[in-house]
Amino acid sequence: MSGRVPRGGLKRARPVLTLALGCAAAACVQPRDVAQAAPVDCHLQVIAALDAAPDDKLLADLSRVSGARLTLIRTMTSNLHLLALEAQGADSECRAAMERLRGDPRVRSVDVDARRKIHEP
Question: Does a structural domain hold residue 119?
Answer without folding.
Answer: no
